[in-house]
Amino acid sequence: MIICLLLGGGPAPAADREKVALLDVSRQQDSDWRDADARLLEQMEARLSAQPGWQLLGRKHLAAVFTEPAAPGWQELYRKACRQLQLGEQHYHRLRPRQAIARLTEALRTLRSIFPFLPRLDEVKKAHLLLGATRQALGLERLAARDYRMVLLLDPSFKPDETRYNPLVVQKMEQVRRRLLTEVRGSISFISQPPGAWVLVDGRAAGRTPVTVPAVLPGSHYATLRLDGYRTWFGLVEVAAGANVRQEVFLQEGRSIRWVRLRRRLAKAGLATASADDAVALGRALGADWLLLVAIEHLGGRTVVEAAMAGGRPAKITMLGVFDASEKGLARLSRRVSAWMTGDRRPAPVVTGPTSPGQTGPVAPPPRPAPPAGPAWYRSWWFWTLVGVVAAGAAAGTTAALLSRQSGWRLEVLR
Question: 186-250: CATH homologous superfamily?
Answer without folding.
Answer: Carboxypeptidase-like, regulatory domain (2.60.40.1120)
